[in-house]
Amino acid sequence: MLEEEEAKETAASLCRKNRLFLIGLQTRRRFRRHVVHPIVDLAVQNDLVRVHRIAQLFHHTRSIYISRRISVRMSKHIS
To answer: Please, are residues 14 and 7 in contact by the beta-carbon 8 Å criterion?
Structure first.
């Protein structure tokens, strides 16, 4: 697995490339762009739709917000 710094860097470039600016971690009402959990980052690379399922794993500690508009756009990339 990628180290945390590398994962964040990869996630940041991935967000920029795909314009997935609404994927991020929200802690204490602060939304941070380009900060994606490494596992979520890997999920985005492998299968964008799976981010929804992986987000459930972190539901008890943090929330991952993905807009419906982007989700539709992501599913178009896959199909």
So the answer is: no
Cα–Cα separations (whole angstroms), residue 12 to 2, 38, 60, 79:
14, 11, 24, 24
Question: 């981010």: which residue's tokens?
Answer: 51
pTM of the model: 0.24
pLDDT in tens, the chain (79 residues): 445 566 556 555 655 554 443 344 433 344 444 444 444 444 444 444 445 554 544 443 344 444 444 444 444 444 3
Distance CA 33, CA 78 (A): 23
Crossing angle for the helix pair 4-18 and 38-46, nearest 10 degrees? 40
Q: Which residue has the tokens 């539901």?
A: 59
